[in-house]
């Protein structure tokens, strides 16, 4: 083997350039950690969110940076944004008391709608529209909830005919 050839086994690397890139990357990363810590503190001020921070969705967002999700949706929210919107919707739904007039079936549908990937962005327009609609339709929700309960009653007894309201 001739060691005096011009072909190098190891490519020449600009060490100064690599060190500068490393330092810049570390600086940006520390800055992003500082911003994440600030976001955590801000989230803790939202009432009834259990002061829980979504470590898994942040990890998934970081993975998405390298391997973007293959979606054809117009919804380009990060997993963190989806998590935060869902938490805020859940808090407002719980605080509104709307679940008290809903059946378990209706609550399950509400939860499903909230936790699928198409959950709405929490903003003033969406919140106003949603809660106005829920308020206007609360009598229907109560009636449907009552019907769901009656339909779930056992047919095993003569007096438990869920389709017949009135005297036994």
TrEMBL record:
One Pfam family of this chain: DUF4942
InterPro entries hit by this protein: DUF4942 (IPR031339)
Protein name from the UniProt record: DUF4942 domain-containing protein
Domain DUF4942 span(s) in chain numbering: 84-168
């Amino acid at each position: 083997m001739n060691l005096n050839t011009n072909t190098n086994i190891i490519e020449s690397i600009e060490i100064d350039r690599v060190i500068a890139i490393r330092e810049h990357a570390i600086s940006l990363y520390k800055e992003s950690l500082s911003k994440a810590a600030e976001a955590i503190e801000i989230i803790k001020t939202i009432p009834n969110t259990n002061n829980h921070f979504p470590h898994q969705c942040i990890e998934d967002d970081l993975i998405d940076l390298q391997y973007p999700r293959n979606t054809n949706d117009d919804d380009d929210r990060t997993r963190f944004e989806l998590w935060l919107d869902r938490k805020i919707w859940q808090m407002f739904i719980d605080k509104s008391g709307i679940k008290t007039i809903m059946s378990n079936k209706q609550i399950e549908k509400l939860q499903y709608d909230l936790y699928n990937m198409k959950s709405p962005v929490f903003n003033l327009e969406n919140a106003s529209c949603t809660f106005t609609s829920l308020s206007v339709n609360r009598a229907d929700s109560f009636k449907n909830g009552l019907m769901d309960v009656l339909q779930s009653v056992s047919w095993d007894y003569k007096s438990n005919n869920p389709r017949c309201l009135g005297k036994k």
